[in-house]
Amino acid sequence: MKFVNFKCRSQVRNGKILFFRGSWLADYPDAENYLTVFYSKNPAPPNYTRFKNAEYDRLYEASLICKDEKERFQLYQRMEKILVEESPVIFLYYDAITNFTSPMIKDYMPNPLNLLKVKYIKKIAGTQSSDIHVERFLL
Predict the structure, then answer these.
(1) H or E element, residue 62
(2) Whole-prediction pTM value?
(3) Quick one: which H or E segment has residue 64?
């Protein structure tokens, strides 16, 4: 059994380490969930990198009050461009989800957060099948 190095976690949280591996998972389906990680007024967590960019912050704040979906998406794109140019992080990989379903099942609803609500899934009475359908999603 390998124990987590709590000293290393503390160093990351306190900005005392220059290089580390981390991850971030969305808990609601909006790009803002990821972009908040780089907002300089957010402490660590979530802004473990201590990223600070006045233009990024201005765009982030504008996106929070923007009601127009297309305009907000454009703000997100501009923020993403800043992140790519300044590279406070290196994106190594994205999670992928593989779901196996069967024609015997109804009301199965995949979602971008991979939250499976089994209370809605039903087996169709009297069916038997060995057919399996595979669906793959990138998160």
Answers:
(1) helix 54-65
(2) 0.66
(3) helix 54-65
Angle at 114 between CA 108 and CA 36, to 5 degrees: 145
pLDDT digits (tens, 9 = 90+) for 25-47: 778 888 899 899 999 999 888 88
Report the residue count for the chain.
139
| CA gap 83, 80 in Å, rounded | 5
Q: Which two three-digit tokens encode residue 71?
A: 């305009």
What are 98-108's pLDDT values in tens digits?
Answer: 777 788 888 88
Omega before 46 within 30 of 0, i.e. cis: yes
Q: For the chain, give every domain's residue range.
A: 21-86, 96-138
Rounded-to-integer distance, Cα 118 and Cα 109, Å? 9
| Backbone φ and ψ of 86, nearest 5° | -90, -20
Which amino acid is present at 76?
Y
pLDDT tens digits, 4-28: 566 677 777 777 777 677 777 778 8
Non-local CB neighbours of 46 within 8 Å, separated by 6+ positions: 24, 36, 37
